[in-house]
Hints:
Chain A is an alpha+beta fold.
Amino acid sequence: xxxxxxxxxxxxxxxxxxxxxxxxxxxxxxxxxxxxxxxxxxxxxxxxxxxxxxxxxxxxxxxxxxxxxxxxxxxxxxxxxxxxxxxxxxxxxxxxxxxxxxxxxxxxxxxxxxxxxxxxxxxxxxxxxxxxxxxxxxxxxxxxxxxxxxxxxxxxxxxxxxxxxxxxxxxxxxxxxxxxxxxxxxxxxxxxxxxxxxxxxxxxxxxxxxxxxxxxxxxxxxxxxxxxxxxxxxxxxxxxxxxxxxxxxxxxxxxxxxxxxxxxxxxxxx
Amino acid sequence: xxxxxxxxxxxxxxxxxxxxxxxxxxxxxxxxxxxxxxxxxxxxxxxxxxxxxxxxxxxxxxxxxxxxxxxxxxxxxxxxxxxxxxxxxxxxxxxxxxxxxxxxxxxxxxxxxxxxxxxxxxxxxxxxxxxxxxxxxxxxxxxxxxxxxxxxxxxxxxxxxxxxxxxxxxxxxxxxxxxxxxxxxxxxxxxxxxxxxxxxxxxxxxxxxxxxxxxxxxxxxxxxxxxxxxx
Lengths: 270, 231
């Protein structure tokens, strides 16, 4: 199976939120399909942890140039997936299609994933002690269906497909917007942002000067978690060096003590 | 040869040290599989019997069961350790200015002199001018104290995370792991010297009597001996 990615086009989006509604509905239908919850319950019980796509609306600029911006907060399915690397139980895996998925059967709710995610994505449900985030609708994708958010979009502001095709289309759109508006548009996440996350499998076409307004972090990091990773490597090497050093010292000490006793200098440690 | 004894460790210090060993062992064994997948074998060893009885023998479920159980041990041991720390810390604070962890002399020259004395003892096998603790012991004591404070504070931040921002929690998780790694390396060195045959007298004092022979102190810890004479 080839890697698939999604793209969100901020220019084509009409803020209908159909993507968000369909995502929430799909996650409830998934519970029904998998026999975890009945139809009535899955619709009536509010389950905020299943809202994988949430809008964050803000107003930017000053009158008369003020405008509304709706940033979407969601999992970016990072290439290097820090959440997956820190998960102690291996509950987070990357599927063949590239979706980074939490397996709730194995999740123990330690919330390490949330601590490592620079986008603050995984949500912890206190009701069942598990972490949740967008699964990239991997079950739909692996059955040749589009992701539920993409399926719902009436304006193709959200589209998905094979990585190279999506990046090609996104780059084309960004070039057209740049040409038409005279403002530079970029494809956020198509190129590696840094070593911590790498490229993203949810890319965004956005005006470069609006990156911050759309809450698209150009340097997504969790410095303390990165230090933790370095310390693990350094700590391992130091532990080995310590064991080797102390063993060498003990052998040296035994030999020296033996020689001192043989020379009649007595046992200095007695 | 006199039969006089010198009190090296109080009964509270011996009690705390003994239980500290138990709890640090529990905390290390239960925390290492969460820190790194290199220690997953510990979680598998715990998870296997649990899942054998529940009938769920999928390897990923065994690991999850093991880590879930170890988390309970980790939290329980952490709370218990904090509990026994309270009387110990209060007792130490009462005599904080007279503790052996403070340098006898300050400055770079004093540190170099201390290292030279350590070389004399551990490399040349000659009597050195040691106090109750040598420079290396003092340095490791400070590293242990500071890293323990970091571990306790960051650990409680992780437990009571709902009151904190995402950035603080992330910082706490990093600090918890890094300070543990520093502590673990220091403890390896501490354990080596503590169980070294050359330090049998100190080992026996800590784990058995709390006392050391005055003659031994006079010969091996002359600075300490002179301080005791002054008192």
